[in-house]
């Protein structure tokens, strides 16, 4: 079922799980997640679970998408936002509802192509997609108010910190088998962070595109 009612049930669950930011919830409610997965999985698109999107990758669990989005919204402006790990494009589409412009980088060509088609179909005109190694960020478009990494980094590429504005935030899952979602903030040359929660993302793979 991909009806509005099924979608609203998911929003209700996210609210119960502690997502309080109405704008974040409205953005998730506005983006049809079933269009970001294979037709065969569309009936499961409004379950609060990660789902396979091919190439050994996954579309994140809606709760995690909401949590990361709300954390970025609560901590400052979202005029220019960079995402590393486009995947299906779902997180980018949700953030684009709340951002001035959303830049997103993906290393797998097939995923870039599919995501671009979805953004066109949904007329999300404030998203730019690049097929590149996200560990390099997007230097030509930097600096950003916020950066979101949707793959787990063993160590956060320092290049990404250098592409943040003063006061800019970076949300990223860090670790290998056990991962934590961290929210960094840049102040001058210093970087502070807070821990958000335990998570389980596919790895950020440095070096090279496919
Ligand atoms: N945000 C996505 C989920 C991403 S899954 C969504 O909403 O669907 C993680 C993605 O990060 C995968 O597509 C993977 O190919 C990508 N990725 C991993 N390492 C990367 C890198 N170095 N540069 C760019 N993308 C990378």
Automatic annotation (TrEMBL):
It comes from the Bacteria. Pfam families: PCMT. One of its GO terms (cellular component) is cytoplasm. The active site is at 60. Keywords: Cytoplasm, Methyltransferase, S-adenosyl-L-methionine, Transferase. It catalyses: [protein]-L-isoaspartate + S-adenosyl-L-methionine = [protein]-L-isoaspartate alpha-methyl ester + S-adenosyl-L-homocysteine. It is an enzyme of class 2 (transferase). One of its GO terms (molecular function) is protein-L-isoaspartate (D-aspartate) O-methyltransferase activity. GO terms for biological process: methylation; protein repair. The keyword S-adenosyl-L-methionine applies. Its EC number is 2.1.1.77. The keyword Nuclease does not apply. It is found in: Cytoplasm. Catalyzes the methyl esterification of L-isoaspartyl residues in peptides and proteins that result from spontaneous decomposition of normal L-aspartyl and L-asparaginyl residues. It plays a role in the repair and/or degradation of damaged proteins. NCBIfam families: pimt (TIGR00080), PRK00312.1 (NF001453). Belongs to the methyltransferase superfamily. L-isoaspartyl/D-aspartyl protein methyltransferase family. This is Protein-L-isoaspartate O-methyltransferase.
